[in-house]
Amino acid sequence: MDETVAEFFRRTILKIPMTEMMTILKAWNFLSENQLQTVNFRQRKESLVQDLVLLCQEKHASLNDAALLDIVYTQFHRHQKVWDVFQMSKGAGGDTDLFDMEQFKNSFKKILQRALKNVTVSFRDAEENAVWIRIAWGTQYRKPNQYKPAYVVYYSQTPYAFTSSSQLKSNLPLLAQTFETHNSTTPLQERSLGLDINMDSRIIHENKIEKERVQRVTQEIFGDYPQPRLEFAQYKLETKFKSDLNGGILADREEPLRCLVKFSSPHLLEALKSLAPAGIADAPLSPLLTCIPNKGMNYFKIRDK
Amino acid sequence: MDSYDAAESTPRQSASLKLKDYFIGTTPLQKRLESVRKQTSFVRTPPRRKIPQCSQQQEDVDPQKVAFLLHKQWTLYSLTPLYKFSYSNFKEYSKLLNAFIAAEKQKGLAVEVGDDFNIKVIFSTLLGMKGTQKDPEAFLVQILSKSQLPSEHREGKVLWTGWFCCIFGDSLLETVSEDFTCLPLFLANGAETNTAIIGTWFQKTFDCYFRPLAINAFNLSWMAAMWTACKMDRYMATTEFLWSVPCSPQSLDISYAIHPEDAKALWDSVHKTPGEVTQEEVDLFMDCLYSHFHRHFKIHLSATRLVRVSTSVAAAHTDGRIKILCHKYLIGVLAYLTELAVFQIE
After folding, report:
1. Cβ contact (<8 Å) for B298 and A284?
2. Which residues of B touch A249 (CB under 8 A)?
3. Which of A248, A262, A274 lies nearest to residue B255, judging by beta carbons?
4. Do A280 and B245 touch (CB under 8 A)?
5. Which of B15, B245, B248 sits opposite A244 (nearest CB)?
6. Of A298, A281, A59, A133, residue with least CA distance to B11
7. How far apart are alpha carbons A54 and A76 in whole angstroms?
8. What are the tens digits of pLDDT across the range B286-322?
9. Reduced to 3 states, what is the DSSP secondary structure of residue B124?
10. What SS3 state is found at B340?
11. ipTM score of the complex?
């Protein structure tokens, strides 16, 4: 067995927690029951791993088998990864094509291998018509890096695919193409949270321009990513009452109104972000609220200048 | 300490245009809320009410006797008239209710940890709890624990209290015959299970019906205005409002507290009709609070749900809970609640 493959095996098995070792090896289904019984699972982990790697060598395990083991491990630890969701939109007049999993895998692999010289693509079927795809990327001159793979989980009966990897962003268009070529649908689109495409032409959006402006302004202020988690903000206000419309109310009063305002929520900043799009607040939201992450404060005393 | 110049915060549009938009209701949600509000004010509820005064009757009531009613949280219910109820049968009622509770508890219903079956039920009259002479007498039902040890006080601890009253219930009293006793407002303090048992007994015995009395935002605003209008020698609590914002997926609560003297100053500036509170004044009072808030935070509180108001006179929660803090205006607060209860019954 190749040195690098042996090392890959060693590192992959080493990742697995002792409590899950048997379960994952069984799920991998490469080493037989008999073979597993010959190994002492009570010894120190380093020694156990050595024994297992030897077994794999004896059985002539390939790089692909190692990749499969990596997929199994990741399936058990999917919650430790951050996944992006993609939705495929069908072109006009598209109906549900009959889906052939084998054909899909073949063409997927072929397309990637044609486009990139050095790439390892592995598949493992999972529950509910899902397929887990593991992709290890290389470059023109370098072999694929097995330690930074990307995962794509595609649920074949749905238009959804999940991806996980930081390296993926640059290769996204290529992935999109692979789906497109196979499914003959329009390219993958990141699911947009915001204005829905009109399903029924009889339903129109009032204030469309204003709605779009509010979305844009809110996004400029809050950004695309989740807000820092905060539960509480408090403002002590000592400001004069001013009102142009309610003419004359408290007009002669010199003293300010002494107020204490408290905002509380399980996720305050996300709640504030949703106010303008919901029509409950103006956009842009008051700087008193939007300055919280920048200033790193959530207790304020506000006075008239 | 953070300084912030409010004047410089005005957006590109002029301030007056902003407020105009706010009043008209730019978003569909606000428009809907405006119309709902107008609807509620059109049906039944009067456009003006008297500011609670400390009546002569009230002065006669011994503050010590009613002290136990204050500073307690009461859950509110409306109650339809009681059929063939008699104030002279209190002893009988105590016995029957006692037996009923014991039976229910033995059935395994409403089991409470640490509950002992040594309880005593007492009916008593609450003198002076009325608006006019025509109002029936208010009465009280209490569940006390009978203490085990002979050395302890005979009376034992009060586990549950419920009282029935009718303050200025003229509109209801006129509609019922002699056989009925009208006490439309019921207040309960103590375990919910006990309230349920007592309620069941009353419903079976007097053919009446309890319903939880919720207080909507419209009435909460009225209460806030009326209680701010009450003359107080000194303020015991800050004036506070709590709004719940219907944004998803996270809930958001906004608490807005204003110094009671400032709230009073604002009210005095709004108030025009002596001795009375009008709809316009309530609206204006709330609008001033909303616009002061909007000026700072750009959030339209009127598009959210008012859930709780709290003043030195009393605190009310939309789920139908009340806490009365000032004995001087006890009758005034109860009068408003009786009105809501009667409205719910009719």
Report:
1. yes
2. 266, 269-270, 284, 288
3. A262
4. yes
5. B15
6. A281
7. 24
8. 999 999 999 999 999 999 999 999 999 999 999 999 9
9. strand
10. helix
11. 0.77
